[in-house]
Amino acid sequence: MNAEQVTKCEGAKGMIAMTGFRIRNQRALVSGALFVAFAVFFYVAGRDYPMGTAAKMGPGYFPRLLTFILGGIGLAVMAGAVTPKAELRALAKWDFKGLLWITGSVMLFAFLLYPLGFVVSLLVLVLVSSKASHEFTWKGALANAAVLTLLCVAVFVYGLGLQFPLWPTLFN
C-alpha cells in the first residue's frame, strides 16, 4: 500500500476496512475484552501467591490456572467476533435503570440479611431486582421469589451448612 492510498482512508475505520478486518459482532468483542480484562486483573492481584507444582499446589495454582482459562476464552470470543461468518450485532444501549435496580437489590440484601434473616432478605432481593425486567409482573415476581428462596435455603443453609440467620431476629 502506498502513501497515497493511506491518505485517502478516513480515520481508523478506513484502515480497518482496507485490511479486511471488520468487527462483525460488537457484543462478542466487548464480552471477550471483559473476560481478558478480568483475567489480567486477577492474575495481577494473585501474582504474589506461591504457585507450587501440580503435585503440591500452592494457594496461587488454581487461581492462576483459572485466569489463563478465562483469558483464553476471552481471546477465543474476541476472535470469533471478527470472523467473516460472525453474526452482525451492534452494542445495545445501556439500561441504567435496570442496572440500578439490580445493584440496589444486592445492596439491600446485604443490609437486611442480619436484621431480617435469609428468607426475608432473599424475598426482597428477588422482588426488587425483578423490577429491572421490562416484562415485570407482580404475579411472576412473587412466584420467582418463592421458588428461588426455597432453592437458596435448601442449597446454602441445609446443603452447604452456611450459618445464615433464617428468620428475623424477632423470632430467634
Structure in words:
The chain has helices at 3-8, 11-19, 26-45, 61-81, 96-130, 138-159. The radius of gyration is 24 Å and the shape is flat. With 172 residues, it is mostly helical. 66% of the residues lie in helices and 0% in strands. It folds into 2 domains: 3-81, no CATH class; 96-171, no CATH class. Residues 1-18 have low confidence and may be disordered.
Summarize the structure.
By secondary structure, the protein is mainly alpha-helical. The protein has helices spanning 3-8, 11-19, 26-45, 61-81, 96-130, 138-159.
Distance between the termini: 78 Å
Query: What's the story with the biggest beta sheet?
Result: none
Radius of gyration: 24 Å
Strand element count: 0
- Average pLDDT figure: 85
Number of domains: 2
Name the beta content range: under 5%
Global geometry: flat
Return the structural class: mainly alpha
Query: What string, H for helix and E for strand, traces the elements in order?
Result: HHHHHH
- The total of helices stands at 6
Helix content: 55-70%
Task: Outline the low-pLDDT stretches.
Answer: 1-18
Topology readout:
Elements: H1 3-8, H2 11-19, H3 26-45, H4 61-81, H5 96-130, H6 138-159
Helix pairs in contact: 3-4, 5-6
For the structure shown, list the relevant keywords.
mainly alpha; 2 domains; 172 residues; disordered N terminus
